[in-house]
């Protein structure tokens, strides 16, 4: 009987490799009969293996092989040794989803309303509504400001100043929320250990 991976004996690493995957095809080289085994192949000694807790079988040349599906599965999910952390991160995202969506929605509404106000007040500077959105987002919300759009009227300058102050408050809210998400993650992680 042959099981396909060139070695004349099964050592501990081979046993670990075999028990990690479900389906292995063990075939008899004389008959070419495929037998699908869905459990562990255990080493008894150098020339004997135990299959499905049945009787021991003598083998001359032991080789191991997994089928193509298992190779793809093994390759795709090889890094799931960090599975516990990914479950915790998924739970933290589920817990924090609604507040993050609320913060993002408020930011988008704020950008659109401020852009509409400044577009109506500073109509000479902005050719389109998109330029007003760009001005509010880059100049005031991100506080970068390339001086490509700057308000001329007093009302426009007041709107941009208010927008800059609101953007600082908005950034503080986001940072506080991220700190809370970190605390939730640490709490859930410590519960699972």
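Q: What amino acid sequence fits the structure above?
A:
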């Amino acid at each position: 009987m042959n099981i396909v991976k060139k070695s004349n004996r099964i050592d501990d690493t081979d046993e670990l490799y075999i028990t990690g995957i479900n389906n292995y095809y063990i075939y008899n080289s004389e008959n070419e009969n495929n037998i699908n085994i869905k459990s562990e192949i255990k080493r008894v000694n150098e020339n004997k293996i135990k299959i499905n807790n049945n009787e021991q079988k003598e083998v001359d040349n032991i080789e191991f092989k997994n089928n193509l599906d298992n190779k793809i599965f093994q390759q795709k999910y090889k890094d799931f040794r960090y599975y516990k952390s990914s479950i915790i991160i998924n739970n933290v995202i589920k817990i924090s989803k609604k507040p993050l969506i609320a913060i993002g929605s408020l930011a988008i509404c704020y950008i659109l309303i401020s852009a509409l106000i400044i577009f109506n007040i500073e109509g000479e500077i902005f050719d389109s509504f998109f330029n007003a959105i760009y001005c509010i987002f880059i100049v005031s919300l991100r506080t970068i400001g390339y001086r490509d759009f700057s308000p001329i009227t007093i009302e426009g300058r007041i709107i941009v100043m208010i927008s800059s102050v609101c953007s600082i408050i908005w950034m503080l809210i986001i940072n506080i929320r991220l700190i809370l998400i970190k605390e939730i993650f640490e709490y859930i992680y410590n519960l699972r250990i």
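Q: And what stands out in the fold?
A: The chain has two domains: 12-76, 80-192.
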